[in-house]
Specification:
The protein is mostly helical. Helices cover about 65% and strands about 5% of the residues. A hairpin with a 3-residue loop joins strand 1 and strand 2. The relative contact order is 0.18.
Length: about 200
């Protein structure tokens, strides 16, 4: 018997909508902070990897393209990509780029640097994106953060699509920085609970 779909089974639509909105107005990139903070908050408050397993729109989107639309070769994910060294190495690199983006935002906010209306793909290639920003009542740093954050979201989505085609549909989930972080938080919680249990014994 076919299982009835839940409302969260349709969250995959969030990924194309988000990327589409950012294409036309870069300030919509701020919505991405929800996807950035929610998995962390869920894991911190005891929800474990619930976000990854149930609510992750990108994971659902990749599954839809790879499995249902058969755009994936469905090859096994390489062991090196699953390794702790690669996952934590990618996590460190990802957050290094995130803090670099925050620093650039700070420079624009302080007036030390002008607003760069570009989207940086793969943290290297600068693509002009001027049509998506026409000025607002907000300070330029608000737009600079949006350009930077959208760059990270678009780049990580493209990486997810690439490994989806080459390997299994949700290969991105194996080394996703947010997934690695939530797993680390879960391990910390388990460790603290075990230490607490030993003290009570």
């Amino acid at each position: 018997m076919k299982q009835k779909k839940k409302w969260y089974d349709y969250l995959w639509v969030v990924t194309p909508i988000y990327l589409g909105l950012g294409f036309f107005n870069i300030l919509f990139a701020w919505i991405g902070m929800i996807f950035f903070m929610l998995p962390l908050l869920i894991s911190i408050f005891g929800g474990g990897k619930l976000y990854c397993n149930r609510y992750c729109d990108r994971g659902q989107f990749l599954q839809l393209l790879g499995k249902r639309l058969k755009l994936s070769r469905n090859k096994p994910t390489p062991n090196w990509m699953r390794s702790k060294a690669f996952r934590y190495g990618f996590l460190i690199f990802f957050f290094a780029m995130f803090f670099q983006m925050l620093f650039t935002t700070y420079l624009v906010g302080s007036g030390a640097k002008g607003l760069a209306q570009v989207v940086k793909l793969f943290w290297t290639f600068q693509v002009p994106w001027k049509w998506a920003y026409h000025g607002t009542l907000f300070s330029p740093w608000v737009a600079q953060f949006a350009f930077g954050f959208y760059s990270m979201m678009l780049t990580s989505t493209l990486i997810g699509l690439l490994v989806m085609v080459l390997y299994k549909p949700r290969t991105w989930c194996v080394f996703c920085p947010m997934g690695t972080t939530t797993q680390f938080i879960c391990q910390l919680r388990v460790g603290n609970e075990e230490r607490g249990g030993k003290k009570d014994a």
